[in-house]
Inverse folding.
């Protein structure tokens, strides 16, 4: 096809100008105005050099300050709340900055180091470099992070920081201190990752009205430098200031690549395998863990407004091609189009633009050379996707022909140590179910079983009430609060409670990842329970009251806020007690039957799409950890927060 004829097509469609895909960018801005504000440029970091005392070490334990801050919030100690949470956030940033820069520098150092022999295999060279890098890391982290450098922060705390929860507490503490502008900024910071948080958008509106704050003055305190420049650039673009758009977009792009690298380095974290695989499997497990994390960097950074923009990176080159074109730098415009097309092969509008440019006298095909670093970038992205696919297809298998096997989503699993036994996702019916093995080690099962047997009190599981689902049933169970009391009473060691939290966190993370949940899961209730030869746990639904008619009533006393359920089984030395998923209340048609065994996790959505029950335990004792999750923070488990705080306090007292 000759370019000229295509160019004519262009002019027939619209003006003879490159088409600019402004849609998503505008959408991005519009989504902000939904809350009648523009999340604006962040205040750059605190500015000025920090003193040595301030610069770290003292607040390395950011989770500690966080817990203190939350405790103060609960006790309405507003000033100490702010002080602790600000320290926590500072510490969090500081930990990230230092960790990432150590990893970056050490990887570079090892890269440049002369190897003992040039003749060794690639594998030898890789591990030799790993040793050099480690040697460097140990020194670097010691210098930068001090004695607590290898402290492991609990995963739920990490995910709360990622979800900006500290700012959620902060905004109220600020407000109570009369710092309304700070409160508004903190609220806007939460909204940037939780755009549908209506409580927060109402708060923000309230703060803005109260203090007469203009939308343009509200800042997202966590907006990264690349995001700040990007927003400035889009504004310049809207003002038709193309020279400035180019400067800012190019700057933002550089910063984006840096941030992307940082994000990847931050994935090279410790990893608890929970078991003891071979050397190579161990390396592969840990590698998979980091790879999975790295694969999320793109969408994490493409989420400037609380919603992922799949075309975020390409969008830079869309702005650039148009702006360069306007500045009559056609060669640069062609380069931008070519780069866009490398990142998104076949993208319609840019293909079109390319044809448009080709029709210009001064343009020829040779000018469409993409930027080198993005060719390499895309190559790595594609490679890693393929690798992930290999991992996900080869380390999971499906047996139950009942389910739509073609759905690739089914085949996901969270680590090589964990094996999906059965999985189902029937999008149209909203069925989410998974059975996976390997979520707890033999030792962990033993400890938890013993603990539950020891601690069990009849009926305790529902705080003395009967379960609303199964009025006739009694069973032995303990909750986190009860475990805390037992430590207090000297009945068990605190390590037992730490174990429960660790294992259940793992299960929560697994369910969240397996179902690709866009919103975080909070624990709503945790319950360790052993059942002994009792009547059947009749068919029920976890978040509504199932009627004989099949209708499911979402009213109290049902736990209507439960979104996902999971059961982690701890033993198998009993008879009966299978978990069954049925089609209706009669329980006559079993869709899926799960035999409990140590480390096996069943996860499922808590709604009427998943009626289930337990067949009678015929002989022996059946022990499991029941976990219920919610996406509504307001229903997050108080006992868990208290247990965590309690442990923190114990650990602190011991120091
Ligand atoms: O123990 C089980 O397998 C399931 C228990 C259950 O469904 C529940 O407690 O809601
Ligand atoms: Fe249930």
């Amino acid at each position: 096809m000759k370019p000229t004829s295509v160019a004519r097509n262009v002019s027939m469609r619209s003006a003879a100008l490159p088409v600019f895909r402004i849609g998503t960018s505008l959408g991005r801005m519009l989504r902000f105005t939904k809350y009648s504000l523009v999340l604006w440029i962040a205040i750059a970091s605190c500015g000025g050099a920090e003193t040595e005392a301030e610069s770290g070490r003292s607040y390395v334990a950011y989770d500690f300050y966080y817990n203190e801050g939350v405790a103060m919030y609960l006790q309405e100690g507003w000033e100490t709340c702010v002080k602790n949470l600000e320290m926590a956030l500072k510490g969090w940033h500081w930990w990230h900055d230092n960790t990432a820069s150590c990893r970056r520098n050490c990887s570079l150092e090892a890269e440049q180091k002369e190897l003992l022999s040039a003749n060794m295999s690639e594998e030898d060279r890789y591990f030799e470099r790993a040793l050099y890098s480690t040697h460097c890391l140990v020194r670097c982290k010691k210098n930068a992070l001090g004695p607590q450098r290898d402290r492991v922060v609990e995963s739920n705390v990490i995910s709360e920081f990622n979800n900006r929860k500290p700012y959620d507490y902060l905004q109220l503490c600020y407000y109570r201190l009369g710092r309304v502008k700070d409160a508004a900024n903190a609220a806007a910071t939460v909204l940037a990752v939780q755009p549908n948080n209506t409580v927060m958008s109402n708060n923000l509106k309230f703060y803005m009205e109260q203090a007469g704050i203009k939308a343009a003055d509200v800042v997202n305190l966590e907006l990264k430098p690349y995001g700040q420049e990007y927003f400035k650039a889009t504004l310049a673009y809207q003002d038709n200031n193309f020279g400035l758009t180019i400067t800012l977009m190019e700057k933002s792009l550089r910063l984006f690549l840096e941030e992307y690298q940082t994000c990847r380095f931050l994935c090279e974290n410790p990893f608890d395998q929970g078991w003891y695989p071979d050397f190579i499997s161990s390396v592969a497990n840990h590698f998979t863990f980091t790879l999975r994390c790295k694969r999320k960097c793109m969408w994490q950074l493409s989420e400037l407004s609380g919603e992922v923009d799949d075309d975020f990176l390409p969008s830079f080159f869309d702005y650039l091609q148009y702006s360069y074109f306007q500045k009559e730098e056609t060669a640069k415009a062609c380069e931008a189009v070519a780069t866009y097309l490398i990142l998104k092969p076949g993208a319609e509008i840019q293909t079109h633009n390319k044809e448009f440019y080709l029709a210009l006298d001064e343009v020829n095909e040779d000018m469409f050379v993409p930027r080198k670093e993005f060719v390499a970038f895309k190559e790595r992205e594609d490679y890693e996707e393929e690798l992930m696919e290999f991992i996900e297809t080869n380390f999971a298998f499906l047996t139950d022909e009942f389910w739509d096997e073609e759905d690739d989503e089914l085949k996901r699993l969270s680590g090589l140590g964990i094996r999906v036994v059965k999985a189902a996702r029937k999008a149209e019916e909203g069925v989410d179910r998974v059975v996976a093995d390997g979520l707890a080690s033999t030792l962990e099962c033993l400890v938890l079983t013993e603990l539950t047997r020891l601690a069990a009190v009849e009926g305790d599981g529902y705080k003395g009430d009967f379960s609303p689902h199964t009025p006739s049933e009694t069973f032995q169970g303990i909750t986190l609060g009860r475990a805390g009391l037992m430590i207090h009473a000297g009945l068990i060691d605190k390590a037992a409670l730490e174990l429960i939290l660790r294992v259940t966190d793992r299960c929560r993370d697994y369910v969240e990842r397996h179902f690709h949940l866009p919103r975080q899961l909070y624990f709503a209730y945790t319950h360790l329970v052993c059942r002994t030869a009792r009547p059947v746990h009749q068919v029920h639904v976890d978040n509504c009251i199932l009627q004989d008619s099949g209708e499911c009533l979402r009213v109290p006393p049902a736990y209507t806020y439960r979104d996902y359920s999971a059961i982690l089984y701890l033993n198998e030395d009993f008879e009966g007690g299978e978990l069954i998923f049925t089609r209706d209340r009669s329980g006559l048609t079993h869709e899926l039957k799960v035999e409990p065994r140590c480390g096996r996790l069943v996860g499922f959505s808590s709604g009427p799409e998943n009626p289930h029950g337990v067949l009678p335990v015929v002989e022996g004792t059946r022990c499991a950890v029941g976990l219920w999750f919610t996406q509504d923070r307001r229903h997050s488990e108080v006992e868990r927060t208290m247990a965590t705080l309690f442990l923190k306090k114990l650990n602190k007292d011991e120091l």
Residues 537, 542, 567, 579, 612, 614, 624, 626 surround 2-oxoglutaric acid (ligand 1) (CB under 6 Å). The first strand starts at residue 419 and ends at 426.
